[in-house]
Amino acid sequence: MKIIPAIDLAGGRVVRLKQGDFAAQRAFDHDAAALARRYVEAGAPWLHLVDLDGARAGAPAQVDLIARIAAGGGRVQAGGGVRRRDDIERLLDAGVARVVVGSVAVREPRTFADWLAAFGPGRLCLALDLRRDRAGHWRPAVDAWRGDSDADFAALLDDGAAAGLRHVLTTDIGRDGMADGPNLALYRELAARWPALAWIASGGVRDRGDVAALAATGVAACVAGTALLDGTLALEDIAACSRAA
């Protein structure tokens, strides 16, 4: 069980959103590269970078900053606006170890399968961002969470696993940035149905208790953003929780 610190970037600044709402943006007075170094020095095995400008534009927009962060040490997974093969290559060239792909993987699973074959399953991560509709069904979100897809996410995962998919970052959008705790039932169900996938849980992590509860669901890691910035999850918890798990 790993804690992966999340750093969301908008206009070069460290920010957090609530439920992906760009109008509900909270900025923090941190230099992004310095913050990343603190996380790495605290024992973070990975960093999760989200290019929010890129997500809105549909193409990576802060590659230079991401490269500067990656050069500071630690392994980086990054996404936001990845729509083309060239986008993946730019991020890998910038020092990113694993590129997060969302909308294209949902809309064009064959394209994503081709990318898995070209770059290898260790270099790509599927972003499966889920939102419940009024009927209670989970719908994958696309376009920086501004739209929902009718894609069958179970079929998407089955096909992805057959194509070599290994890493899946799953966010319950309703919990993201809300400090309400993670959706344990969702992650338990996903990890049980697709145990060969390395699940990364995202959304709602508040403290060490939530990390321990997530470890019991079978996920491989969890992303923590607001909790680390606000201090409800301490820097020393990054290494301590990983050792305990």
Automatic annotation (TrEMBL):
First-tier enzyme category under EC: isomerase
SUPFAM superfamilies documented for this protein: Ribulose-phoshate binding barrel
Enzymatic reactions: 1-(5-phospho-beta-D-ribosyl)-5-[(5-phospho-beta-D-ribosylamino)methylideneamino]imidazole-4-carboxamide = 5-[(5-phospho-1-deoxy-D-ribulos-1-ylimino)methylamino]-1-(5-phospho-beta-D-ribosyl)imidazole-4-carboxamide
Pfam families reported in the protein's UniProt record: His_biosynth
Active site location: 8, 129
InterPro entries recorded: Aldolase_TIM, His_biosynth, HisA/PriA, Isoase_HisA-like, RibuloseP-bd_barrel
Subcellular location: Cytoplasm
Catalytic activity, EC: 5.3.1.16
Keywords per UniProt: Amino-acid biosynthesis, Cytoplasm, Histidine biosynthesis, Isomerase
Domain of life: Bacteria
Pathway entry: Amino-acid biosynthesis; L-histidine biosynthesis; L-histidine from 5-phospho-alpha-D-ribose 1-diphosphate: step 4/9
Family in the record: Belongs to the HisA/HisF family.
Protein name: 1-(5-phosphoribosyl)-5-[(5-phosphoribosylamino)methylideneamino] imidazole-4-carboxamide isomerase
Organism in which the protein naturally occurs: Dokdonella ginsengisoli
